[in-house]
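Sequence in, structure out. Go.
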Amino acid sequence: INAELSVPVGHAGYISIVVSCGTIVSSIFSHRVIRKIGTGKVLVISVSMTAAALLGFYFSPWFFLFIIFAVPLGLGAGAVDAALNEFVAEHYAAKHMNWLHCFWGVGAMLGPLLMSALLNTGHGWRSGYLSISVIQFGLVVLLAFSLPMWKKRENPLQPLPVQAGQAPAKQGLFAAFKVKGAALAMSAFFLYTTVESTVGLWGASYLVGARGFAPESAAGWVSLFFLGITAGRAISGFISMKLSNQTLIRGGIIVLVCGIVLMLLPLPDIFAVVAIGVIGLGLAPIFPSMLHQTPLYFGRDRAQAAMGLQMACAYTGTTIMPPLFGQLFSRVSFDLMPYALLICGAALFIFTLCLPLRFKNAKI
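Output:
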């Protein structure tokens, strides 16, 4: 793309920033829109926005158009995440939340594979965006036909009932922060995405800079991280039928810390690859399990607003921390990466241990 449009490759970062800002903004405001028109319509509109944005990338002859189309891409993506996660958390079991995020991993792997396959068969990068856009528009059609099914589960025009002993909710943008323990929950999401996005972005660089891997092999080995997350969430869906969300969160963090410690041990370099896969497995159940706890922690009346704020905190961690860590690692040494991850993992463990104590009325 940078060669065809005659811009530096680093300009991709500007697109990423715009998309991230869009996801944060739409996550924060999503609950107001959902209460007015319902989850189904929000999904139809949001997926239409992302499909149109990808189609815009396909047609764009100038870089500034990528920046413009990144706006609806980010806004649509953030609204989809906030709406769908809260809907599943409120209406479905923990296994469904884990499997929902398992298929996020499937999509995260299939997107680059599709682009790679099209490039290797002589098609340009534009064909990749066109293909995904067509798939997204197909999804819009399916969502439009499924609207009656969404409406059966919710009535956005009616206020949600208030739980016994709970004061009526204030529907301000940041009302969820007034719930005791809310800041702790938001911080946990920030820490989780900090770890996940840091390993995803800098894992290959760590293998090259700290372990001496060749760049081409390091890029391939890091796919084990995403495979670990995807497979782990598929397995966690079944485990969640027997264990509580809180147990899955704690177990996942323990596996995560074990993977980070494995990176620190003076073992042959191949164990660093194994460690990255173990970290993916550990991360797998944490995010969906924390999301599924949202209605229990905040109550149905505040759940959607809280979900939007949690997703905003998650996107903030993804946006801010990997670049900061990247500056640290590149200026000092990538040997620092496991230590930074260990600090975040330990803090995440402490925060999630404290959450049930702060939300004393939650059914863990």
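Check: The first helix runs from residue 2 to 5. DSSP finds 16 helices and no strands in the chain.
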